[in-house]
Amino acid sequence: MSAKLWGGRFDLPTNKLVEEFNATILIEKRLFPVDIKGSIAHATMLAKQNIISQEEAEQIISGLNAVAKEVEEGKFVYDTADEDVHMSIEKRMTEIIGPVGGKLHTARSRNDQTTLDSKMHMRSVIEDNLALIRTMQRVIIKRAKEEMNVIMPGYTHLQTGQPILFSHWIMAYFWMLQRDYSRFEDLYKRMGQCPLGSAALAGTTFPIDRFYTAELLGFDEPTHNSIDSVSDRDHMVEFNAAAAICFMHLSRLSEEIVLFSSQDFKFIELSDDFCTGSSIMPQKKNPDIAEKIRGKTGRMYGNLTAILTTMKGLPLAYNTDMSEDKEAVYDSMDTLQLSLQVMTPMIEKMVILEANTRNAADRGFSTATDMADYLVRKGIPFREAHHVVGSAVNYCIKNEKKLDELSIDEFRSFHASIEEDIYQDITLEACVAARNSYGGTAPQAVEIQIKRAEEICFGGLATEGFNTQFDASENTISE
């Protein structure tokens, strides 16, 4: 006869290899606190509904608290023979208080327990994620405000496009992170239904109060379908999806940090404590943290694919395949949080090399579009202006000149309408300042952008020294 808590049906004990193969207890140690909390709520409800006595509930809760203390003090013994966190806690609690511990499992199943635990734990993790994302966003705002006068090249196809403010560039990542924040926030809300009480798949014959346990555990309401409740892993899939998207954003930022810290760009200098050296080349200062984050992205994508593949063909309701959800999700949780924690101070401490970013923006004819816009304001159709400027750029390349180094006669050789005021229109400052449409790179537009970001991150605090406003009716920005 099997000694398992479920062993009444079996004549033979479980093969040791099967125990080790099936066991998830070592993976899900992090679930012990929430499992105990869920069990305390369940015992409390059973007593309220007179399914067990108040005295029995108090004994069970006392035993559960004793188990929690053992876990906290590092005295709890994790045994793969116990299979999972649920069986392990119930077994130890029953050893402490005696046979009455067996009444805890009345009107519930490991199927609704595991979904409950994963949701409770994930909601806590999401709260941590939201805090970490906010911290990184605040550092981005800080850097944007500190570097408002820094001009750098903006790229398309990794070719110089137009001059932009460094502040505008780094704020792009603020908004990426804001979308990540909203995805985790939305997931948190969707996890507001409590599965406890769904039992194995069909509910229970006992007069339980699922609304009461949902309230005790901080949920909005109980789930509405017991079959869906125990077979639902959407939250696990969605977490990995949100984490993968967030990591894609971190990877893009990491890629630019790697590029911009290289000797060929040299736009930024990373702090020594966020870099490593070479074992053979003494001059090297490697952006290993950014590279490491970039490298971890593949695993984050793999975790999403893994959970989707596990769930894609499962019949209702619970199947043991679902126990494979944990490793991929926990890895995504840990990897994302650690990466946010390490990347935030790296960004905060990096030095922006303003002279280099400006020189780079001054190369590559980044003001060519503004020369075309200049001609359009003279009444020349844009396509004709585009061709004129293209010819001027071709001439500059062959003669090793920049646009602003052309004489007025050289300018007029491309179009007679060009006048002396061309020079003031194609300076880097003029080109940046001219793009004052909402969301543009002009200083006034970026100030408005930062003000909006601060409202999001700090609850409506105005940005000191920023007094610009956007007039939607005029589509302009004014003091």
Quick overview of this protein structure:
With 479 residues, this protein is mainly alpha-helical. The protein has helices at residues 16-22, 32-48, 54-72, 85-97, 110-146, 166-190, 210-216, 226-231, 234-260, 288-311, 325-349, 354-362, 368-377, 382-399, 408-412, 422-425, 428-434, 443-458; strands at residues 151-156, 159-165, 193-194, 221-222, 268-269, 351-352, 469-471, 476-478.
Structure characterization notes:
- This protein folds into four domains: 7-106, Fumarase C, Chain B, domain 1; 111-150 and 163-211 and 221-349, Fumarase C, Chain A, domain 2; 368-426, Fumarase/aspartase (C-terminal domain) (Ribonucleotide Reductase Protein R1, domain 1, Orthogonal Bundle), CATH 1.10.40.30; 435-478.
- The model has no long low-confidence stretch (mean pLDDT 93).
- Helix 5 runs antiparallel to helix 6 (166-190).
- The strands form four sheets. The chain has a two-stranded antiparallel ribbon.
- The chain has helices at 16-22, 32-48, 54-72, 85-97, 110-146, 166-190, 210-216, 226-231, 234-260, 288-311, 325-349, 354-362, 368-377, 382-399, 408-412, 422-425, 428-434, 443-458, and strands at residues 151-156, 159-165, 193-194, 221-222, 268-269, 351-352, 469-471, 476-478.
- It has 479 residues and is mostly helical.
